Structures are given as structure tokens and as C-alpha cells.
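Record 1 of the preview.
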Amino acid sequence: MQDVDWDEDDPFEDQREQVESPMRRLLFEYGRPYWFTVTVGLISSVLARALDLLPALLLAVAIDAIFGEAVFEEQVPLVVLPEAWLPATQEGQFWFVAIAIASSFVLGALFHWLRNWGFNAFSQEIQHDVRTATYDKMQRLDMEFFASKQTGEMMSVLSNDVNQLERFLNEGMNSATRLIVMVVGIGFLLFWLNPQLALISLAPVPLIAVFTYIFVKKIQPKYAAVRSSVGKVNSRLENNLGGIGVIKSSNTEGYESERVDDVSRNYYDTNWEAIWLRIRFFPGLQLISGIGFVLTFAVGGYWVFTGTAPGPFTGTLQTGTFVAFILFTQQLVWPMAQFGQVINMYQRAEASSERIFGLMDETGRIERDEGADDLEVSDGRVEYEHVSFAYEDDYADADREESSAQERTRSRDVSDDERIIDDISFEVDGGETIALVGPTGAGKSTVLKLLLRLYDVNEGAIRVDGQDIREVSLPSLRQSMGYVGQESFLFYGTVEENITYGSFDADREEIVAAAKAAEAHEFIQNLPAGYDTMVGERGVKLSGGQRQRVAIARAVLKDPDILVLDEATSDVDTETEMLIQRSIDDLTEDRTTFAIAHRLSTIKDADQILVLEGGEIVERGTHDQLLENGGLYSHLWGVQAGEIEELPQEFIERAQRRTARTEAGDDDD
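->
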């Protein structure tokens, strides 16, 4: 088994490097529709934080004016209330302050609720939109993209990275607003109360700014590495859980535990580097913030205690003002210390948004023309005209930079050694059945995937009733075709849901008819809940043959114009295969059909048989004609019929050379 190099670079590194201003793009592209909720959140946050500052200020007023000798009117900031509204008696002033403090708490609670509603609604809406948009883009990418990325890595983007965005948009923006309001508000009040002492209290702010700048520069690349390592952990876990049956039957639990341990340790080491930097930064930031509190207490306390302005300071400092300074400075310590948390969340979100937008900006090899005409199938005639194909990893760099989408799609020069399919041409009349046979790796499945435009040709063209399949809309092309592959994938759900997948409006009568045609109705009736039986993840509760029959029933129900059968009966026994083949014969009677089969007996009645080897058509004709030719088909037939024991040495040597040349490819036939 080929081991994966888990020390390789971030699999989305190329995409991330192309993304510019990811956070700005996030807010403007996805945040714009939800301006109302974020505006409510921002305004409410400002008002809530401002009201949080009011009790300390009112306490200073009470100490100096009500319990001290200061003039009440001079201590109350006359911004909201006119002086005429202020009570004249000491008792009235006391109750005025008490009611004002109580009102600040009540209104503050209301605005805190609105703040939480606004930011949560904003972040959840964006999280939903980004996740669904990313998934929608991901599923529209070419199959070649999925061949180069592991499922766990893509799950990491859809789950972990999107969640990081939600955390910043909620907690991060909330904390950032609080930080700005508290620092600006407290700074303003401190200067309003005593500009000289305010300089002492706010002295650590420049040092905090420098300290934070250094932290940001060091932490950013570490978070990018953490996001990559999370994807690798997810990939390994998803891979192992999907192959748990192989692991158990191979008795390799210990081996796989070591591999999981390796990727988990890689994540631990990468994450610990970020944590180690973070846990040193936050206490240091809090210590610097605390210096302002200590200086305020020392200078202000000495000023009040002695009644003399220390050093270059002048004037007097009242007890209430000193208490307000202490309270405000203490409130300032936490927001300043939290500044690092905001930067921390921002850096995580930026690293995640780079991966998300890098994926969303991924350009597929298959060009999608949203305005293309729909495919119109009349006879079902299919033509392959000088078709060649190679996987994208084999292209020259110059080919990747072609500016013309049409040139990229229609012509890419590749060497003969790189081609998986090499200059194939054939025609299929409407209603005919054409079979593709040949050794493993000959390119049979790839030929049919090109018809479905799961990949696009490098050279040549494929036409259906004279229409180039690259010039029609993809949905109409794939809607006209029914595909049953080698691996009959079933979704988690019921048998009925899997049969109706793609034909969602079918009624029970049509479903049963399709199941009967696929020889599936009898075994479905014997399931615990019949058609409502849950099949489990990937259909694990059904046998391979049962899954194939459900997949065939799905294709039957779709009633396509063109049917593609890629080893559609490979997992059933001979008796069941004969029954299914009888149904398939009925199904293919009036429609164009492509069939791949290793069991040559299932395709001997095809109108035309193409024999592929090394990506080329080496023989073509009917079953009887190919037997008379005495070529590769004749030898394959003889081996399966038991007439000869093995293929001639020349065929074996050619197969070995072909395997050596294409072992890194993606062809699964």
C-alpha cells in the first residue's frame, strides 16, 4: 500500500496563494445581503458598551458631589439631560444617581440582547451561505480535481474552515466592537475627568500595539499550517473508516493505529507551535495592560492621599474621580488583553477564508456555458471523432496558460506516452448496442466517462445526433443518459430513495416496475421494511449484487435516451446475471447502449464490439467476426471459455508495458 507523505505542503496551497483580501471579500460578497442585522449588532454593541461605562462615572459623581463637597451639576456630564432636570436636594441627587445606574443596567441588558441577536444572525447567515456556495462549487468541479484531493481535506474546508469564519464574525467582531468602544470611551472619559492622570493610565497602549504587531506576524503562518494539518487528520480518519472492512480482514488495526497516530502527532506538533506562541502572548499582553492599572493606582492614590500633585502634575484630584479612574482602568485591562484574542480569531478566520475562496476560485477543465442550448436526442446516434485524452497532471505548463477557453477544451497537445485514450474513432447508430472489451487499464471506462463529460477530450470531438457535447448544457447531456458503474454507490436512506434518486417525482407503481425490471423487487420485498428499509451508509446493509440491482433499477426508472453500463453485473452470481441480462436486453432494445464487461458472454450479442488495448482500438466487429480474426478478442474468449489456459506471451508483455505506463493514471477499468 502506498503511504501518504503527510509532511507535504497544504493541498490547497496553490489555491490560497491566488486569493487576495479574503476577509474583505467575505464581508462584501457574503455580508452585504445581511447589512441590517450587522448594523443592529454594531449599534447595539456601541450603546451597550457605553452604558457599561455609566455606573462607574455615576459612582464618582455620588462620591464627590453627594457624599463630598463637589457641586453636583459640575460632576454630571450635561450631554443627555439639561441642567434644569437635575435635582437640587442631596436626597433627590442620591435617588437620581440610583435610578440612573439602574436604568443603565436595564437598557444595557436590552442592547446586549440586540447585540447578540445581530451578530449571531449575521454570522449564521454567512456561515450557511459560504458552506452551501463552497459545496455547490466543489460538486461542479471536474473529476480530476477530486482525484488529486482527499475527501477529508475537502470536509475540513466545508466544516472546520467555515466554522472558523462563523466564530470570528460572531465572537471576533463582537469583541472587536467592545474593544474599540471601551478603549475610545474610557480614554475619552479619563481625559474628561483628568487629562494628566489619563496619560499615566493609557501609557501602555503604544507598547501593546507593538507587541500585538509582532504576534500577528508570527502567528499567521502557523495557523495556515494548523488548517492544513486538520485536513490531513480528517483525510486519514475518513479513509480508514471507509475501509474498516479491509482493515479488519487484513488484521492491520495496529498498522492503521500507527498511521492515525502519525497524522494526529503532526497536528499536535503544528497546533502546539501556535498554542505555545499564543499562551506566551496573552499573559504578556495582560501584564502590560496591568502596568497601566498599577501606575494609575500609585500616582492617583498618592495624589489623593497627600493632596499634592506629584511631579510635574498640577491641581487636585478628588476621591470620586480617583475611584472612577481605578474602575475604568480595571475595565480597560480586560479589553486590551482581549485584543490578542481578537487578532487570534482574525488570523484563524483569514487562514480559513483563504482555503475557502481558493477552492471557490478553482477553475475546472470542463467549461460550463450556462447559456448553452439543451441536448436534443432524436435517434441517439453517437460519434467519436479522433478522440484523445490525458489527465491534467500530464499537461505542459504552457497549455495551462492558454487564454482561450475553447482552445483549452478542444485541443491540448500531449505526447503519445501520456495519452490514456489515443485517436479513437467510431460511430453508433441510434438504438444499437456497442460493447467495449479489453484488458484492465485499456481505457474502456475513460471512453464512456468522456461521453458523460466527467472529463473533456484533449483532441477530437464527441457528438450525439450531430451535436458536439461540449456545446450543449451539461444538465441536459447527463439527464439524457443513464449510467450504472462498476461500484454501485448507494446513499444513506431507504431503498426507495435510492431508486428514485434523480427521478424524485416517480410514484410507487413506477418504482416497483423499475425494480422488477432490474430483478430487485423480490429481494426488496424480503427486506425488513421492504422499500422503506434503510440501506446504511453507502448501502452497507445490502450485498454487492443487491446494490447493483438497485443501481440498475435507478437507471431503468430514469428511462434515459442513452444507457451506459460499466460492468453493471460484475457483483451478481451467474443465475442472477442471466435474469438481469434478460431485463437489460428489454431495456436496451430501443435505445443506444454502451456496455463494458469482462464476462464476454454478456456482450456477445452486441451490434458492435470494440476491443481496446493501451488506449487504442485494436479490433472491431461482431462477436463472430472477432472470433474469426483470431486476435486479442478471440484469445480472451478462449481463456474465459476454458479453450486455452492463458494468453499468448505477446499479449502478456504488452499488458505489462501498458500497466507500467499507466499505473499512475485514474482509469478504473
